[in-house]
Design goal:
This is Membrane-anchored ribosome-binding protein, inhibits growth in stationary phase, ElaB/YqjD/DUF883 family. Keywords: Membrane, Transmembrane, Transmembrane helix. It comes from Nitrosomonas aestuarii. The protein is mostly helical. The chain has helices at about 5-75, 80-100, 105-120, 120-154. It is elongated.
Length: about 150
């Protein structure tokens, strides 16, 4: 027959359980804090990469605008109305490039979300058109790969 636990043994057992519970709680809190830090670091790194990519895009848009301006200058004599339209497009691209360069990623995302709320039809239409061109591009790429594969097999 087991002997009843003494009051001292029960107290030690209760203290041991409380200490174990406290250590588990501390470990959980440390794990949560570490997880928050990892997420924060990942967000910061993602933001840095996005900022670098935005600067690259802004530079490319600006280069395109410069090319369009030169093209407009070259056709000024022959086709004035086309040159004017090309120059206007170049100026608009320069404004977009400047806007991208001056804004951070979060601001651009916020502005896009706001625009999407105000003009959902335009955004959906643009997405549909982009999807159409992407599908066409992928199909043409696939056809080209098949063509090359067939030539290599022959």
């Amino acid at each position: 027959m087991p002997q009843p636990k003494t009051r001292s043994t029960r107290n030690k057992s209760t203290q041991s359980n409380q200490q174990t519970s406290k250590k588990i709680d501390e470990t959980i809190e440390k794990t949560k804090e570490k997880g928050k830090q990892i997420v924060s670091d990942a967000k910061e790194e993602t933001s840095k990469i996005a900022e670098q990519q935005l600067q690259t895009v802004a530079h490319q848009i600006n280069s395109l605008a410069s090319s369009l301006t030169k093209t407009a200058d070259n056709m000024e004599d022959a086709h004035t109305w086309i040159a004017d339209g090309t120059r206007q497009t170049a100026k608009a691209l320069e404004r977009v490039s400047g806007s991208i360069s001056e804004s951070d990623f979060g601001t651009l995302v916020h502005n896009f979300e706001d625009y999407t709320r105000r003009q959902p039809v335009i955004v959906l239409g643009g997405a549909a058109i982009a999807g159409f061109f992407l599908a066409k591009f992928l199909k043409n790429s696939s056809d080209h790969v098949k063509e090359i594969t067939q030539k290599n097999d022959d």
